[in-house]
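Quick entry between incubations.
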Amino acid sequence: MNLIDKYIAEVGKYLPRRNRADIEAEIRSTLEDMLEERKQAEGPENEAMILELLKEYGPPRKVAESYVGPRYLIGPRIYPIFEMVTRIVLAVLFAVALAGLGIALARSSVTGPEFLKTVGESALGFLSGLITAFGNIVLVFAILERVLPAKEFEKETEDWNPAELASEPDPDRVSFGEQIVGIFFLVLFLVIFNLYPGVVGFGFFNKSDWVFISPVLTEAFFSYLPWINILVLLQIGFSVYLLRQGVWNKGLRILNIVLELAGIALAVVMLRGPSLVALTPEQLAGTPLAEAAQVFTKIGNLIPSLVLIIVVIVSSVEVAQMVYHLMKSRPSSTYPVMK
Amino acid sequence: MENDELVQNMLLELRRGVLSIAVLSQLSREEYGYSLLKALSDKGMEIDQSTLYPLLRRLESQGLLQSDWRIADEARPRRYYVISTQGRAVLSKLKREWSAMAETMKQLLS
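Done. Structure below.
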């Protein structure tokens, strides 16, 4: 392998695979032309001549950069929304951590070492939650960066009409933030229930000890999980498609109603089926809840049903809203919009 | 920042803006990258390889240029570029704009 080959291979390392071969061929052709010219002026080629030529052509990384341009994990068009979502999620996490710390401190004795230990544990828990949440947000946005078409974004910028500032918000415009927060929680749901079902539970401080009770998710739950997964994945796909479209239309609203109804149907089936969690009085033994174990077990086992009932209610409201939007014709704009 | 450096940076930006027009103007006859570089340089428009080749690719992807790999005299494959029909139309508009801009600048600077 001669110097020119090595140089081209080095440039190739920094080029996208898609047009690497083509760019490499073009650089080679240019270097050979330049070398040819030098040979005519200075005599037969030698290593010093090639070294000087490569030096002039530039450092491999810089040469590759000139072809590629800047590449982003999360680009400037969605960065502001990324920042907004991150702020909201981190603020919520911080509030939850503070509340947790408050409860822990109220329960623990206020001696120095005890106090420091409780604060330290809370801080560590907050930190690990912070990193996980941030990682998830980055993941969702990095995927969005790659699937949202640049054209749509530019079109929206071009079509911008100052009259929109004065008019009522367009009911057909897709709320970017709402969909992204939705996608974030759906992904979180998939990750937790499929990969880490063990973290589903509730915890509390018993004196200074953190007690975590994970009611075992029953086989009944796992038999529903594939159906839940399909619905969640469909919903994520739908949200991404919606973001790409930018506006609601009749077809999308009908599709959304179908998805919501499927969700309601599954929730009803799950409500009528066997219990989704099995919390036993034995799991509460040795905790302050042990005295009222029977009552707490009942409450614990009721929580999934409560969640499902909330899902049914929220989904029904959304279906009602969608149907309302479908029935109502789109109000005409106060200002004519030039297209 | 030294004045010289400031001037250099501004010149670089100025040049970047007009390079597309310069390149389009020289491709009514087909050229390969290095011969185009020489042609531009002979007429006083110095341009770096690392600027020219990405620019050629961009103009091609915008449909203003066409290119194909060919083996010419020295049995070495080269990519030849030539202006497209769309490129000609764009260039003639750009030429008019450039003349108007040059006229305005002349008045501003006199």
